[in-house]
Specification:
Number of helices: 7
CATH topology: Alpha-lytic protease prodomain-like
Strand content: under 5%
Shape: elongated
Largest sheet: none
Distance between the termini: 40 Å
Oligomer: single chain
Number of domains: 1
Number of strands: 0
Structural class: mainly alpha
Radius of gyration: 21 Å
Order of helices and strands: HHHHHHH
CATH architecture: Up-down Bundle
């Protein structure tokens, strides 16, 4: 058997000498992207939790709950990449959608409760800074997820990336809430929290469509 025939024969077994299985490379790259975005969002959520404890802002709470939920979505995605399973990856995408929806419900409940039972919002400068931190953290996480998702052909990771990017814009609403309360519009904080909830519901629908379009079965 010639060298070329030997090489061809090995090709039918789905591997080549001196090279790493592409599925392993994809798995490692996916795990790296998910892990990095998880770390970014955990730091962001921790910083916002500290400010929420001091300020009592329901708009910040809505953003905080959502960012914490985003961090949790990294776990099933990481498991899917570790298993190198397209089916597991798609199921992880559905889990992402469920977490987004749950966070919207929690945020809406808190916003309505605060409208019924108004509370003062304190530490407005810290609140604005927390909102800005949320924007930066989500944008960084979005860049990591979108680049990796497009490179790896992962609809679930792309959906999570767009989700994080929109969340960054939602975080800017927290900055607007701090400004509104500062000029005397106290009701603006729960109202903005309610608007954030509606935006999250829209993200839920968009993410559902993205994951559902994934051809994996």
């Amino acid at each position: 058997m010639s060298a070329s025939d030997h090489s061809h024969a090995h090709g039918h077994h789905g591997h080549t000498h001196g090279r790493i299985d592409p599925s392993i490379v994809r798995s490692r790259a996916g795990l790296k992207a998910v892990g990095l975005s998880l770390a970014i969002l955990l730091v962001t959520a921790a910083a916002q939790a500290i400010v929420f404890a001091a300020s009592g802002s329901v708009a910040l709470l809505a953003d905080l709950v959502h960012n914490a939920g985003d961090a949790l979505t990294a776990l099933p995605l990481a498991a899917a990449f570790a298993l190198r399973s397209a089916v597991a990856e798609k199921r992880a995408g559905y889990f992402v959608v469920a977490v987004i929806f749950f966070s919207a419900c929690v945020a809406a409940y808190e916003a309505v409760d605060r409208l019924i039972n108004p509370q003062a919002v304190d530490h407005l400068l810290a609140l604005a800074i927390a909102g800005a931190a949320g924007f930066i953290g989500n944008e960084l996480a979005a860049l990591v997820r979108l680049r990796a998702g497009r490179r790896l052909g992962s609809p679930a990771l792309v959906a999570d990336g767009y989700h994080a990017r929109t969340d960054g814009l939602v975080s800017l609403a927290v900055v607007a809430s701090a400004f509104a309360v500062w000029i005397g519009l106290d009701a603006a904080d729960p109202l903005i929290g309610l608007v954030i909830s509606l935006v999250i519901l829209r993200i839920t629908w968009q993410s559902w469509l993205t994951v559902r379009a994934d051809p994996a079965t």
